[in-house]
């Protein structure tokens, strides 16, 4: 009961400051063409993928709010960045005997009720227990819970109703091949929820993203999903899904092939901006040129005020390169307020 009241108090405090942070109508209008995507919510300020982090991102004026989706043991889509839950929750304390042979705890091994019993914290390192970002929300304040995908949609749609705005959702289907091997179809589950809540057409204010090119094609061609799709781009050395060759997808031919299926790409930022030239302008890549030529939306990940690219001395330098020099359509960020503020004072 105390935990529930703590979370309620946090949400109430967030809603109380919304009018002071940014006027909702202005926030929506100021980034109409160049969108701000709240990466795991306002995760620079509150623990990632918690409902308070999403509410704060909404109040800061984000155009889209991201959801990473994995499955529970009983087949419920829940919002977590990883298939593992041991670096963002207290699962090791509450269920010490439930780890697998590799020492990790997996969301899919726990029912929704069990996942709901866990407390979510700021992300920490598995080996040392130290926070990944030490100057963010204190890790010892474990007062948050894991939301289901539908709970998050209800939060955003509820706020859209009460504020008159139209903030979109931006789910990522996490590790679909791994889920399939575990006996669950996370992709079909996500698409079912999307269509149930009215996010099944190109006109709906949403994108569905995946790193798995084979699965992206399945979404369009087999599941016949008609909403907007984004193909995420990683690096082969990170461990690409079977049937996905990021080196190829970054070429002109690869971009042309993606354009037959998706509405946009989600590249790692260095895949579209290599750095700055001697005169301080963004050095853009052939992948970006090809994507813009193909009229694909380009939404790179991730801009963090506390972990900037080496070539950017501050957020303004990074955002100028992204929006003003490279003409990129939108960006994933842990600090949506800073990107909203940057775009608000610049002409479209």
From TrEMBL:
Residues 1-27 form the signal peptide. Pfam families: GDPD. It is an enzyme of class 3 (hydrolase). GO terms for molecular function: glycerophosphodiester phosphodiesterase activity. It comes from the Bacteria. InterPro entries: GP_PDE_dom (IPR030395), PLC-like_Pdiesterase_TIM-brl (IPR017946). This is glycerophosphodiester phosphodiesterase. Keywords: Glycerol metabolism, Hydrolase, Signal.
């Amino acid at each position: 009961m105390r935990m529930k009241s703590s979370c309620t108090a946090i949400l109430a405090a967030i809603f109380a400051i919304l009018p002071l942070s940014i006027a909702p109508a202005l926030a929506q209008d100021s980034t109409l063409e160049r969108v701000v995507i709240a990466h795991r919510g306002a995760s620079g300020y509150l623990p990632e993928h918690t409902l308070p982090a999403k509410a704060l991102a909404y109040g800061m004026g984000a155009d889209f709010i991201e959801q990473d989706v994995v499955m529970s043991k009983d087949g419920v889509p829940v919002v977590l960045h990883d298939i593992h839950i041991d670096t963002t929750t207290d699962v090791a304390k509450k269920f010490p005997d439930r780890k697998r042979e590799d020492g990790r705890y997996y969301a899919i091994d726990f029912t929704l009720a069990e996942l709901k019993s866990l407390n979510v914290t700021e992300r920490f390192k598995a080996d040392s227990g130290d926070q990944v970002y030490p100057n963010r929300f204190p890790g010892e304040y474990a007062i948050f819970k894991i939301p289901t995908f539908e709970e998050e949609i209800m939060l955003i749609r509820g706020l859209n109703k009460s504020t008159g705005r139209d903030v979109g959702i931006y789910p990522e289907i996490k590790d679909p091949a791994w889920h399939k091997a575990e006996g669950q179809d996370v992709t079909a589950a996500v698409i079912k929820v999307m269509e149930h809540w009215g996010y099944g057409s190109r006109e709906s204010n949403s994108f569905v993203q995946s790193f798995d090119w084979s699965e992206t094609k399945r979404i369009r061609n087999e599941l016949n999903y008609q909403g907007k799709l984004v193909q995420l781009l990683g690096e082969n050395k990170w461990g690409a899904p079977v049937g996905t060759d990021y080196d190829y997808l970054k070429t002109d031919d690869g971009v042309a092939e993606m354009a037959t299926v998706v509405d946009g790409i989600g590249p790692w930022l260095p895949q579209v901006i290599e750095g700055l030239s001697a005169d301080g302008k963004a050095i853009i890549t052939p992948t970006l040129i090809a994507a813009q030529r193909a009229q694909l939306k380009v939404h790179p990940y991730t801009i963090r005020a506390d972990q900037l690219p080496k070539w950017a001395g501050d957020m303004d330098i990074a955002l100028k390169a992204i929006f003003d020099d490279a003409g990129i359509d939108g960006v994933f960020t842990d600090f949506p307020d800073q990107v909203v503020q940057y775009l608000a004072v610049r002409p479209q």
